[in-house]
Write a structure and sequence with these properties.
Blueprint lengths: L1 H22 L3 H20 L1 H9 L2 H31 L38 H14 L3
């Protein structure tokens, strides 16, 4: 009975705040406040509040919640154990693909290519000096 009275008072107060908000011409906010304030009243009228109060003060309900929690823990523990066993029994992973990128499963050795090198000119080794030459060019361009 007390919970129903409190929920009704909260709903009435919320509707009053919504009316003041609507008076200030903030209709969207007023509608949102009215919607939130009608939720407790709806819960009271459907009987959900009475059910929740009866459940909260019932020892058998708490035993039931404890059993549900224990069952959930058992499910979680068996799942973790199952995954660990499957990871230990799994065959080793296949060898990684060549450096050039993805290769078709039925590809032959000549189709693999040389891994990204161009045929016309040989690849030159990059040095630390080459890395900084681009930066130097940008700095010179801006007069730094």
């Amino acid at each position: 009975m007390l919970a129903e009275t409190i929920c009704s008072a909260v709903a009435a107060a919320g509707l009053g705040i919504a009316a003041v908000t609507a008076y200030r011409r903030r209709f969207l906010a007023a509608a949102r406040i009215a919607a939130y304030s009608l939720v407790p009243l709806g819960l009271v009228l459907t009987g959900a509040v009475e059910w929740a109060v009866d459940t909260a003060f019932s020892p058998s309900a708490w035993v039931g919640f404890g059993l549900l929690g224990g069952a959930w823990l058992l499910f979680a523990a068996t799942r973790v154990t199952e995954r660990r066993r499957a990871a230990k029994a799994a065959p080793p992973a296949a060898e990684p693909a060549p450096r050039g990128g993805a290769v078709a499963p039925g590809a032959t050795a000549p189709s693999l290519g040389s891994g990204g090198e161009t045929r016309g000119r040989p690849r030159r080794k990059e040095t630390a000096e080459d890395d900084f030459s681009d930066i130097e060019a940008i700095l010179k361009k801006h007069g730094i």
